[in-house]
Amino acid sequence: MTANLKATTDQFFNLDPHLILKCADINGYTPTGEIHQLNSYENRVFEIKLEDGKSVIAKFFRPQRWSKQTIEDEHEFCFDLHADGLSVGLPLRAKNNETVFNANGILYCFYEKVRGRMMQEVLLHQFEKLGSLTAQLHNTGEKKEAYNRNFFGPTQDNKWVVLDQLNEVIAPEIRPQYMELADHVFNTLDEKLDPQGFIRIHGDLHRGNLLDNGKDDITIVDFDDFINGPVVQDFWMIFPDQDFAPTKEFELFLKGYETLRHFDERQLQLVPYLRAYRVICYAGWILNRWNDPSFPKIFPEFNTYRYWAEEFDSLRKIIKD
After folding, report:
1. What are phi and psi of 294, to 5 degrees?
2. Which three-class secondary structure state does DSSP give residue 288?
3. Rounded distance, CA 78 to CA 84, Å?
4. Are 155 and 190 in contact (CB under 8 A)?
5. Model pTM score
6. pLDDT in tens, 37-58
């Protein structure tokens, strides 16, 4: 790491409240000085109280995570979705129409504050609406490509490199079995995923990124992992504990989806591999964030036999063939 990058990274780990307030001020907001840090391991996210009684959300991106262009692709997708009638967490534009700014090498942006509860519990009647919203998202997503964003899949998004890195830290007692299963997952996805059919998708559409305002109006937030990928990636995290055997919930979801868009159910065969891929990539993400002082505290067992034994057990339960 060069000296300049190290200085920028150190500044990111310990963001100065004065810098946060200055960024708000130079972009036309009038903060009261009250700042609340919000939950985010990857980026640094703050709610900034304003003099007019409102709030704005400031998001500072981890250095080298994204380029300005990749973030602008994300924002373009959000504006496209909004124009097509979806409720999404929108980035805020400056007077010059820009949405991405730079503070001493750290990219940042502002978002409107979205109110609502995370949909950790989904009522039966809401599944059809969720299906319809997901179809709307995909109908907008297929209208254009995100040229600066990755394509989903081990080879496409360079995750084989991550697997090589994990090979160096997995507990030796677990390593051969773990790597054999991980290779199987990666090779299967490389074989079965067809980038020709990829569209812009959310990429991380779990229930924590769906907010319900109490009137059955649902807002989709946090497009940080937005990617060109298979539509089924936006299905399975809404059903984290299901194997997609026929259930009333999924039947309603699919009914809502197919009122607006056809779904090729053969994609459901990918779900176990997508789940396993996420488990493996999550471990790789922790490894590549280990120099962040917060990560050893958040994941204290990462370098232990117990951690890798549990990870391998999770993968075995997901991949049964």
Report:
1. -80, -25
2. helix
3. 10
4. yes
5. 0.93
6. 998 999 999 999 999 999 999 9
